[in-house]
Amino acid sequence: MNRFLSSVLAAGMALVMSAGVAAADDQLARIKQDGVMKIAMSGAYPPFNFVNDKNEVVGFDASIGREIARRIGVEGEIVTTAWDGILAGLLARKYDTIVGSMTITPEREKVVDFVGPYYHAGRAVFVAEGSDIQSLADIKGKTVGVTLGETHEKWARTQDGWSVRTYKGLPELLLELQADRVQAIIADNIPVRVAIKENGAKLRQLDTPDIEGGSVAIGIAINKKNPELAAAMQAALDEMMADGTYKKIAMEWVGADIR
């Protein structure tokens, strides 16, 4: 999850902190009056948000944002902007919200409020579909594959009895697992799920609810002191999760329910 941890974001946060917290207003009333909710994202983070061959911004984030707007009773207008300045743009009222795969962190919560989380991501362990490995304990004495230099490598090397091999990236990890040269791979869960969806890879994710780094909360950012807007967006998100719309969107773009 380089996107969630990048130093670029840290630089962006410093800019935001220097700009200060925006003043409050009744933003929900203004959005309804205008009939449009402006929704920001980078447009460069597939499958969550990206530009397709028709020059349209699509993806999981775009679909979630547009559906929230629709349920509030307005049109969702996607705005693409550079990621390192996206919070500053929200504070400057260039758009109404960010539905752009933003991790909820204490630093960000000082300057914006979050609706959600609307999905979770994090570390996961995958094995071949027919493997007899059912838990982390079953990996003892076996070989695991990780991407060289990722935090997953450091974590894997602390596990008792694991033999760790490093590779350049996910494509190699998938090939090695399918060839049984490694018996498990450690990686960010969503890229692997997308690979399963797009390539039909015969993999299975282990159930590891307490794994370190296994669940990072991703939220929808809005300006502070807008409780009416926060409540309306949260109600729309909750309704989507309850009536099956959220799962349909998640399956279309990610291939799994990632709430």
UniProtKB/TrEMBL annotation:
Superkingdom field: Bacteria
Solute-binding protein family 3/N-terminal domain ranges (all copies): 36-257
Alphabetical list of CDD domains matching this protein: PBP2_Cystine_like_1 (cd13713)
SMART domains reported for this sequence: PBPb
Protein name in UniProt: Amino acid ABC transporter substrate-binding protein
Pfam families: SBP_bac_3
Alphabetical list of InterPro entries matching this protein: Solute-binding_3/MltF_N
Gene3D superfamilies to which the protein is assigned, alphabetical: Periplasmic binding protein-like II
